[in-house]
Write a structure and sequence with these properties.
The complex is a heterodimer of chains A (about 250) and B (about 375).
Chain A: E1 2-7, H1 11-21, E2 27-33, H2 36-46, E3 50-54, H3 62-70, E4 79-84, H4 90-95, E5 100-103, H5 108-128, E6 145-150, E7 153-158, E8 164-168, E9 171-175, E10 180-183, H6 187-193, E11 199-203, E12 206-209, E13 213-218, E14 224-228, E15 233-236, H7 238-248
Parallel strand pairs in A: 1-2, 1-3, 3-4, 4-5
Antiparallel strand pairs in A: 6-7, 8-9, 8-12, 9-10, 11-12, 13-14, 14-15
Helix pairs in contact in A: 2-3
Chain B: H1 3-10, H2 18-42, H3 49-80, H4 83-108, H5 120-199, H6 201-221, E1 226-228, H7 229-246, E2 251-257, E3 265-267, H8 271-281, E4 290-299, E5 302-310, H9 327-340, E6 345-350, E7 355-363, E8 376-378
Parallel strand pairs in B: 2-4
Antiparallel strand pairs in B: 1-3, 4-5, 5-7, 6-7
The chains are: A alpha/beta (about 250), B alpha+beta (about 375).
Chain lengths: ~250, ~375
């Protein structure tokens, strides 16, 4: 069972969350709060696994609440999903390792994906039994998540959700299962941030997530191509071929 | 006003700067002196060039100083003078200056004319005999110059103001046109959501989220007129997603953008009215298999946008809501004209049976400071 607290100063907003969370059968909403002080007391009392937190609250803002809660070193912070109408706090939320950042109004689908993520993290940390959830993420020089804005939303994208990345001049296009996002970024910079155990550059203008590679095939004209599990075909250049062969022999 | 400030003020335009003004007179004197010397020379007289130059240059230097002082004290009055002022003040002044200048000059050259020993008054009469007409001429020419300077300045000011005004007007017009677009589009979408609410609540929920995202982007953009193509296409993709939901499966959308043009500049919200038009007058009349193609490419150094839709051709049986046609399109045309003048083109024509194509071209420009990377990396 996952214990959750909903903190939002608006009744209707809390009501919507409560209603949508009914779909998640393993969720138990242990309390609701409408002000910063109430939230701090409630979280200290109930020690929930997950906190849905509005950033703009009477008294203090969401970040102040987290600051107040983490002042007590023994207290284990719950996972946090921010819910807000403002997109300007996204990077700050990302930096304090929030699970997700939901821009109001959000759809049931969007909430569901945030909840999935939270569930995953909570279960992982339960398995490792370490208080802060697994090995210190700072151990790895590679990024696990990317935050960016796309089509008016904030996305905390897990790199494992990326199928492949294509270059488009000064931009890169990141494709996930259902969507693609255009980011102002260079392939080289992105490649540096990505774990080479997981991602492989197969062409000057494409990087694939090896998790989703189904096969490497030779085309009729002697060129090589990478076939993804969803049927997408990505050209591979000769200069990068040795890399994938090295990987296949592992 | 201190004297220094006044001198500075009266030194505009540059021609009226004391050094340049008096310098101009000295130059003139030098030319006359030289001409005088050449004339004497051709007639066989031997005259000392240095003496001649000195006499002429001093003459015109005195003129320059007097005229600049007149400009300094009386310039404004001369520029605004009416006939009575000219008759009662300028004519006496012209006599005074013409004689006065000669008096100073005669004082400077006591040994001229050469070889004649005359008293100061005799010499003055001698010089005035030969030069009084020239002096009057110089005086009145300078007065004409002062008035000319004034006319020129006023003309320049007027021209500058007119140019500034037309820029302001164009900006105001563009702003007004953009203001028209948002509510138009907003209410249409809200209307769709309202009707969707009755049939499919989750779908209405999604549309509401999409509309919020669209508004968020528009608000963030503020009044920026020209935005990068990637921003405009992001907006378009969201708009197309909304439309796709409204026309559930009846229209296939194709978007093709040349990746080299992501940073090209395009007037904000240029495409949305065109696509809206394609849906309203073409695609909406189809039950299925509609096709909408949006393409952005480069053609001979210009940006070319084409929007192609199937449906009915142009000018089908007139509909009653014809009034609503063209507000968006006229808006697009106006904004293109205001931004690019004669350097843009807009055309709407039938591209085959029951297909309508809109083609827009305008000069290709790239944003000087493209949007910074806002991507964050972490755990």
């Amino acid at each position: 069972m996952i214990n959750a607290v909903i903190a939002d100063d608006e009744v209707l907003a809390r009501h919507k969350l409560r209603q949508l969370l009914r779909e998640e059968t393993d969720f138990d909403i242990v309390g609701e709060s409408a002000t910063a002080a109430e939230t701090i007391d409630l979280v200290r009392l109930t020690k929930p696994d997950l906190l849905f937190l509005d950033i703009r609250m009477p008294g203090m803002d969401g970040f102040d609440i987290i600051g107040a809660l983490s002042a007590d070193a023994d207290f284990v912070l719950p996972r946090i999903i921010f819910t807000t109408a403002y997109d300007r706090y996204a990077i700050r939320a990302f930096e304090i390792h929030a699970v997700d950042y939901l821009l109001k109004p959000f759809t049931a689908e969007r909430l569901h994906s945030a909840v999935e993520r939270a569930r995953e993290q909570i279960q992982n940390s339960a398995q490792t039994t370490s208080p802060n959830g697994g090995p210190d993420p700072a151990d790895s020089p590679y990024t696990k998540r990317i935050v960016f804005k796309s089509r008016g939303r904030i996305l905390f994208l897990h790199v494992s959700d990326i199928r492949w990345i294509g270059a488009e001049e000064n931009y890169v296009r990141i494709s996930t299962e259902s969507e693609s996002h255009l980011l102002r970024e260079t392939m080289t910079r992105l490649e540096e941030k990505l774990d080479p155990q997981m991602f492989l550059r197969v062409h000057r203008s494409s990087i694939v997530n090896l998790q989703y590679v189904k096969e490497v095939r030779t085309e009729k004209d002697g060129e090589f191509a990478v076939l993804l599990a969803n049927g997408q075909k990505i050209a591979m250049s000769r200069s990068y071929r040795s890399r994938i062969q090295g990987w296949l022999q592992r | 006003m201190s004297i220094v400030e006044k001198i500075r003020e009266r030194s505009s335009p540059l021609l009226m700067h004391p050094a340049i003004f008096v310098g101009g007179f000295i130059f003139l004197g030098m030319l006359f002196g030289l001409q005088n010397w050449i004339t004497e020379h051709t007639w066989g007289y031997k005259v000392n060039l240095f003496l001649l130059l000195r006499a002429w240059i001093v003459q015109y230097f005195i003129w320059g100083v007097i005229c600049w002082l007149i400009w300094f004290w009386l310039g404004r009055s001369i520029q605004n003078a009416g006939l009575p002022w000219i008759l009662t003040r300028l004519i006496p002044l012209s006599a005074l200056v013409s004689v006065g200048e000669e008096m100073v000059w005669v004082l400077c050259f006591p040994h001229l004319p050469l070889g004649m020993h005359m008293s100061y008054w005799q010499r003055l009469r001698f010089e005035l005999d030969g030069e009084i007409i020239d002096n009057f001429l110089i005086f009145w020419l300078v007065i004409v110059l002062f008035r000319g300077v004034d006319y020129y300045q006023r003309y320049r000011e007027k021209e500058g103001a007119a140019a500034q005004l037309s820029v302001q007007l164009a900006q105001a017009q563009i702003r007004a046109l953009r203001m028209q677009l948002n509510p138009h589009f907003l209410f249409n979408t809200m209307n769709s959501i309202s009707s969707m609410m009755r049939i499919d609540v989750p779908a209405a929920d999604i549309m509401l989220e999409q509309l919020s995202s669209l508004l968020r982007i528009t608000l963030e953009r503020g009044e920026t007129q020209l935005i990068s193509l990637s921003d405009e296409m992001e907006f378009m993709e969201m708009y197309l997603a909304l439309q796709d939901r409204r026309f559930a499966g009846r229209v296939r959308q194709e978007v093709r953008v040349d990746p080299a043009l992501h940073d090209a500049l395009i007037p904000a919200m240029l495409l949305q009215p065109i696509v809206e038009n394609a849906y309203a007058h073409g695609l909406s009349r189809l039950d299925r298999d509609g096709v909408l193609t949006v393409e952005v490419g480069r053609e001979r150094g210009r940006l070319k946008v084409t929007v192609l839709n199937t449906g009915v051709g142009l000018n089908p049986a007139p509909r009653k809501d014809v009034q609503s046609t063209g507000v968006g399109i006229a808006n697009v045309k106006n904004r293109l004209r205001l931004h690019y003048g004669a350097q843009q083109s807009f055309s709407m024509y039938e591209a085959g049976t029951h297909k309508v194509q809109v083609t827009i071209t305008f000069p290709l420009q790239f944003s000087v400071n493209p949007t910074p990377t806002l991507t964050g990396y972490g755990v």
